[in-house]
Amino acid sequence: MTKSSLLILPGDGIGPEVMTEVRKVVTWFEEKKGLEFDINEDLVGGIAYDAYGTPLHDDTMAKAQEVDAVLLGAVGGPKYDTLDFNLKPERGLLRLRKEMDLFANLRPAQCFNALADFSSLKKDVVSGLDIMIVRESTSGVYFGEPRGIFEEGNERVGINTQRYTESEIDRVARSAFELARHRDNKLCSMEKANVMESGVLWREVVQKVHDQDYPDVELSHMYADAGAMQLCRWPKQFDVIVTDNLFGDLLSDAAAMLTGSLGMLPSATLGPVMANGRPKAMYEPVHGSAPDIAGQGKANPIACILSFAMALRYSFDCASEADLLEAAIETVLASGARTPDLMGPDGGNSITTSAMGDAIIMALDK
Ligand code: IPM
Ligand code: MG
After folding, report:
1. pLDDT tens-digit series, residues 183-236
2. For the whole model, what pTM was predicted?
3. What distance in Å separates the CA atoms of residue 180 and residue 178, rounded to the nearest whole number?
4. Angle, to 10 degrees, between the axis of helix 245-258 and the axis of helix 224-233?
5. End-to-end CA distance of the chain
6. Contact between residue 343 and residue 350 where contact means Cβ atoms under 8 Å apart
7. Is 223 known to be catalytic?
8. Cα-Cα-Cα-Cα dihedral of 220, 225, 226, 230, to 10°?
9. Pairing of strands 69-74, 266-273
10. Model confidence over 242-288: pLDDT tens digits?
């Protein structure tokens, strides 16, 4: 069996802490299930800036291009807020997405049974929730030119450009239709075609891809603001949602919180399929670096561990191992183990980041 190569980039804030727990899980799969990984660890974000003066060293970028999967923790922190845009920790992450051409960011929002009470919404609105947001992640206003802060008359003007080509919309739409076919066969596309030309084009292209190649998938279109409202009102009406980079950033945070905790949600960002038949891929939790709780053992490692489960599924052809890991996490949650982010309003006893990792290992052992 050839070894799968994995580049681990813990990053900043709680990134290294949660990644330590992922390493335990990876080791468990090596020792107990015979999986073999060739693991390399490197820096990204603020920690890379501190070491090299750039949030992503070219050598790290080159490594990322070669591995089967990248697993990233989180980037950013207040210390770097005043840096020039190109040096900010977030640029490291965006460069990975852009240069690896990882255009389809899959963000599941799944409500774990044991946590249905933790949502800010009523239990019957969220229990059993299982939706997938596909966020375009290499284009749109995140990357469009012109961008910058310019002098105009006697004041400055800040400019960003929302820009989508037909082929960029086409490819992410296809990823979303494919996913829908493996789920409940329903896709809702969100944009603001009522105010943005890029939204008009988005809607047209998604409809065309549907009519030509995916007529069997039930397609609907929604303005993104109405979509945000519907996500809070009755999220179970959705199966797969496809949307652009910025709307996807907002909608996926909102969808994540429906499930009770941002600390629970993984993501996969997939690119073109390579010669070995696997997509280029990076896996990361949806949550950020949470500098306010970094280093205190308070972070929830589950989102990052579930991101590794997605890697097992999408990059390593290990679907049954992914199922096993997800089931172990369900078991641990059902047993009442909680990191502080999962504590209800009346408090209770919480466990540390590493105790949560250990509990997951114990559940895997059973
Ligand atoms: C995310 C994050 C990033 C984004 C930041 C850290 C650049 O919010 O992955 O959702 O805006 O895409
Ligand atoms: Mg975000």
Report:
1. 999 999 999 999 999 999 999 999 999 999 999 999 999 999 999 999 999 999
2. 0.93
3. 5
4. 10
5. 26
6. yes
7. no
8. 90
9. unpaired
10. 999 999 999 998 998 888 777 888 999 999 988 888 899 999 998 89
Exposure of 152 by Cβ count < 10 A (0-12 exposed, 13-18 middle, 19+ buried)? exposed
Q: Which atom of ligand 1 is nearest to the CA of 97?
A: 12
CA dist 214 and 192 (Å) reads: 23
Q: Using alpha carbons only, what angle is made at residue 354 by residues 67 and 288, rounded to the nearest 5 degrees?
A: 60
pLDDT of amino acid 264: 87
Q: Which pair of structure tokens corresponds to residue 244?
A: 């652009």
Ligand 1 atom, smallest distance to 284 CA: 9
Among 80, 90, 253, 284, say which to mutate for ligand 1: greatest number of ligand atoms within 8 Å of CB.
Answer: 90
Q: Which residues line ligand 1 (CB under 6 A)?
A: 75-76, 90, 93-94, 249
Domains and CATH numbers, the chain: 1-111+262-366 (3.40.718.10), 130-258 (3.40.718.10)
Distance separating alpha carbons of residues 14 and 148, to the nearest angstrom: 31
Cα dihedral 223, 178, 252, 87 sign: negative
Sign of CA dihedral 165, 166, 167, 173: positive
Contact present, 117 and 348 (Cβ < 8 Å): no
- By CB atoms closer than 10 A (0-12, 13-18, 19+), residue 123 is exposed
Sign of CA dihedral 235, 240, 242, 248: positive
Cβ count within 10 A of residue 330: 14
What does the mean pLDDT of the chain come to? 95
Smallest CA separation from ligand 1 atom 4, residue: 249
Give start and end residues of each alpha helix (H) in the chain: 15-33, 46-52, 58-66, 89-99, 123-126, 166-181, 197-213, 224-233, 245-258, 302-314, 319-334, 353-365
Residue with tokens 């970028």: 61
